């Protein structure tokens, strides 16, 4: 049986898929299987997966109707043979020693999870990214009990270099410890609660500042360029966490309240950035929704520590959303000129 199972959900990424798969199959650590879940791709992605399976016996492929990334990942989890699991998105890629850098400390220190750093990559940033990688000096951080693990995990929004990412990539998980934990199907930003559930089980963790994962910063991604209603899932996912933190980790409730507040800042910013004077009724609807959600959650925001900039923005956005939104939109338009 392979030591590591690599799960890659695939959907309409024919131009980027081979870069991803080559970075996995050419790893210095070779004792792994690669599970490719073709999530109903309409381009040649599915055929590319099949071609790789024909060439390499470590590759297994599923073709399923489009059900979203969570459903594809869950199918992968249900079919792994490996003792450990990593997730890689099909438009991303990894360093050739990525698995080795995660697996070695996992075994050496008998850890429950090993996390590394990731970096946003685009063709325009190629030289900048290479420079950062060259200058990076990898350090290893040990966490020896669940309280220390969870404190660091819940402080994630406030660190320039987070030890434990909320994303599911850049982590090596124990298959046995993962158990019945699965991604919530039909939601976006589902990684956050998935990781929270897993890290609650972690007693011993390793975090390394090694940068091994390249997140593709697609300039045309809808998540990056516009607001859409499913982004309200961000609040829903963070609410699942804060409700559980109240019970299991009450001493960390203020940390998680900070995380929730910053999610509101991000969403207000996305909504304001998408204001169109020709279609202001849509923005008004979204503002009403976020105002309603905020009113329900503001009871958590009595002791916020999110910095002066974001603290001021959140107060203005929640108190005077239309004035703040129009001012924000006008500022962005002027900045583009």
Automatic annotation (TrEMBL):
Highest taxon above the source species: Bacteria
Q: Which GO terms describe its molecular function?
A: glycosyltransferase activity
Assigned keywords, A-Z? Glycosyltransferase, Transferase
What Pfam families does this protein's entry cite?
Glycos_transf_2
Q: Does the keyword Glycosyltransferase apply?
A: yes
Gene3D superfamilies attached here?
Spore Coat Polysaccharide Biosynthesis Protein SpsA, Chain A
UniProt domain Glycosyltransferase 2-like: residue ranges: 5-147
Q: What is this protein called?
A: Glycosyl transferase family 2
Organism expressing this protein natively = Lactococcus lactis subsp. cremoris
What taxonomic lineage is listed for the species of origin? Bacteria, Bacillati, Bacillota, Bacilli, Lactobacillales
């Amino acid at each position: 049986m392979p030591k590591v199972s690599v799960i890659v959900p695939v959907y309409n990424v024919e131009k980027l898929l081979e870069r991803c798969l080559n970075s996995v199959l050419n790893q210095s650590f070779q004792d792994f299987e690669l599970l490719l879940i073709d999530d109903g791709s309409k381009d040649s992605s599915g055929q590319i997966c099949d071609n790789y399976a024909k060439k390499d016996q470590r590759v297994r492929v599923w073709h399923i109707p489009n059900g979203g990334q969570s459903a594809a990942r869950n199918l992968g989890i249900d079919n792994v043979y490996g003792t450990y699991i990593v997730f890689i998105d099909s438009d991303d890629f990894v360093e050739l020693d990525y698995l080795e850098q995660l697996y070695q400390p996992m075994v050496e220190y008998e850890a429950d999870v090993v996390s590394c750093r990731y970096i946003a990559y685009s063709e325009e940033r190629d030289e900048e990214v290479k420079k950062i990688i060259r200058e990076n000096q990898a350090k290893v951080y040990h966490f020896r009990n669940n309280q220390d693990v969870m404190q660091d995990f819940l402080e994630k929004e406030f660190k320039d270099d987070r030890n434990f990412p909320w994303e599911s990539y850049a982590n090596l998980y124990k298959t046995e410890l993962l158990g019945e934990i699965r991604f919530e199907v039909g939601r976006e930003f589902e990684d956050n609660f998935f990781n929270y559930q897993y890290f609650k089980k972690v007693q011993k963790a390793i975090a390394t500042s090694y940068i091994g994962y390249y997140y593709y910063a697609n300039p045309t991604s809808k998540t990056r360029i516009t607001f859409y209603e499913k982004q309200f899932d961000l609040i829903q996912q963070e609410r699942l966490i804060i409700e559980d933190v109240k019970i299991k980790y009450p001493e960390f409730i203020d940390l998680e309240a900070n995380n929730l507040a910053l999610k509101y800042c991000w969403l207000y910013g996305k909504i304001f950035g998408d204001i169109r004077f020709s279609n202001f009724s849509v923005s008004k609807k979204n503002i009403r929704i976020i105002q309603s959600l905020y009113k329900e959650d503001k009871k958590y925001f009595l002791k916020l520590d999110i910095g002066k900039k974001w603290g001021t923005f959140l107060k203005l956005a929640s108190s005077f959303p239309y004035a703040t939104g129009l001012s924000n939109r006008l500022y962005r338009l002027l900045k583009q000129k």
